[in-house]
Amino acid sequence: MLQDKDRILKLLGSGLGGEVVSATVGCDPSYISQLMADEEFRSRVLAMRIESLTADTQRDRAIDEIEDVLIKKLKAGLDS
Predict the structure, then answer these.
(1) Smallest Cα–Cα separation from 5: which of 64, 76, 13?
(2) Within 10 A of 35 (CB to CB), how many other CB atoms are there?
(3) Residues 6+ away with beta carbon under 8 Å from 6
(4) What's the distance, CA 49 to chain centroid?
(5) Domain hosting residue 64, numbered range
(6) What's the domain count of the chain?
(7) Along the 80 residues of the chain, how does pLDDT read in single tens digits?
């Protein structure tokens, strides 16, 4: 059961909803609700979600910077 709890934590932490996680793991949705009612478990899930969102935001910013450079180069090439 501990392995399932760790898997549930990772899936919820990645941003998946309780219904999807319960179907994936093969448990009753009420078990997910029970886990999320535990303050420590819920805090771990939220911390993982924040970490994931932060990483996604940093990646998006890096891609935006690359796009800005490419746009400037394309414009400079068109002006030539």
Answers:
(1) 13
(2) 20
(3) none
(4) 5
(5) 2-79
(6) 1
(7) 667 999 999 999 999 999 999 999 999 999 999 999 999 999 999 999 999 999 889 999 999 999 999 999 999 888 87
